[in-house]
Amino acid sequence: MPPESAPPPVRSSFAIDVPDALLARARAGEAGAFEQLYRWFERPVFTLALRLCGDREEAAEVLQETMLKVFAKLGEFRGGCPFWGWLRQIAVNEALMRLRSRRKWEDDTALEDHALADEHLPPPTAAADAAALARALMQLPEATRSVLWLYHAEGYTHEEIAALMARTPSFSKSQLARGGRRLRALLESTAEKAHA
């Protein structure tokens, strides 16, 4: 039996190379540079917030708060990581803070050890219609949806997700396994209805 290989790295929608000159202009307070950064990152921030929060109005608020914080803290960015990674971290923190403030986090317990084997299964097939996938994601509990999105779409590890959500890595693994099964079932049900 061949050894299990790690899943391919995920390329985040945030992975936009920002020229140092643009950052310097933004740090200097140039409105045009801020506007360009906003335009480049508006869609990835909104999409991430929508997937985590499940609500367009809340996603718009997360976008606004994220960009305000980015602009206010731009002088603190020292370049130890890509600018997009720093901005993405602010967006994730804003979205998760909004979820925590709603106090709707579920108290799911960890799955049995055998269920964690599902973690290495690929996400639902690429043939799934994007709209059906978005609808199915919105039917999942917030914590489960957040873990699925952060892991599969943004490339966070279980340890990083656990730190972001103030949980354990096993919580992230169990949510990924459970969420993957629920998502597949929802997509299969949608496909069966479409073919009926």
Automatic annotation (TrEMBL):
Keyword field: Sigma factor, Transcription, Transcription regulation
Pfam families associated with the record: Sigma70_r2, Sigma70_r4_2
RNA polymerase sigma factor 70 region 4 type domain: residues covered: 132-180
A molecular function (GO) term: DNA binding
Gene3D superfamilies reported in the protein's UniProt record: 1.10.1740.10, Winged helix-like DNA-binding domain superfamily/Winged helix DNA-binding domain
Domain RNA polymerase sigma-70 region: start-end pairs: 37-103
Record InterPro entries: RNA_pol_sigma-70-like, RNA_pol_sigma-70_dom, RNA_pol_sigma70_r2, RNA_pol_sigma70_r4_t2, RNA_pol_sigma_r2, RNA_pol_sigma_r3/r4-like, WH-like_DNA-bd_sf
GO biological process: DNA-templated transcription initiation
SUPFAM superfamilies named in the record: Sigma2 domain of RNA polymerase sigma factors, Sigma3 and sigma4 domains of RNA polymerase sigma factors
NCBIfam families reported for this sequence: sigma70-ECF
Family matches, as PANTHER family: RNA POLYMERASE ECF-TYPE SIGMA FACTO, RNA POLYMERASE SIGMA-70 FACTOR ECF SUBFAMILY
Similarity remark: Belongs to the sigma-70 factor family. ECF subfamily.
Descriptive protein name: RNA polymerase subunit sigma-24
Species for this entry: Vulcaniibacterium thermophilum
